[in-house]
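Revision sheet: structure tokens.
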Amino acid sequence: MPENSVKAEQTLRHDWTVEEVEKLYNMPFADLMFQSQTVHREYFDPNSVQVSTLLSIKTGGCAEDCGYCPQSAHHESAVKAEPLMPLDRVLENATKAKESGASRFCMGAAWRNLKDRDLERVAAMVTGVKDLGLETCVTLGMLEGHQAKRLKEAGLDFYNHNLDTSPEFYGDIISTRTYQDRLDTLDHVRDADIHVCSGGIVGMGESLTDRAGLLVALANLPDHPQSVPINLLVQVEGTPMAETDNLDPLMFVRTIAVARLMMPESYVRLSAGREHMSDELQAMCFLAGANSIFYGEKLLTTDNPDTAHDQQLFERLGINTLSESGTSEHASAA
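Predicted:
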């Protein structure tokens, strides 16, 4: 076994270094894939994938200047600001998501931070979705401790708040919110006993060291995030990153594999960018240890493969979807 191998029976680590992670990235591709698949099989059914659906409950007009995001009011591509979606429309969308086979329903609002004036409306959405028998997730920007506790009382299972990239590269992407702001929000989420969903974006022009640094920041949190979304940059016209060079697809697969090795108990999710991935590339990502996706034609404002196509791909690969009870059911029945 190569000297930089990771054993399947490893204990969970929170002391990774960037140098160690760069060595994992630089392993021969076949060795890396073998190790990530071995670890994946130690902790998960390798032929099952958890499925979530994401709905934008408040679109556009965000005060943040994230260089990749068309919802930022700072960019020419700015999506038209819309008010918070009414409860009945949210529940209508959640019902459709469940009927399509999703086990988790995620609600995203283009806010810098959750305001107390909106807290009860969002809490009602969480409770309503939970009552449908779905797992609940929200992403609402920065969060205070009392807000996290109220969302937990409402039935919130997951809170998404991505670190986006390494601490060193972060300032090249965002200037309106600090890295520590993001870490503080994750602290509030953990303190409220809500599961953490946190990952990042690759393909933003970052270096290999920055990709390693992102995964180190995630894996060295007090607890590994229960869900780790790995996004591939979607180059939206009018954003500062519209002309960024495409990332080597095999580098994206390596990122999935390294995330699996470092956070073996976490669900690693293929998130933004799947619309531009071939079926073959997605299959390699599943082989590398990805075991979660977003279902549905939209991810907030960017396109996503349609549900029927995903079901056909799962059928071709012999992949089952996880029901909300955590058991597997064949994709054709979804």
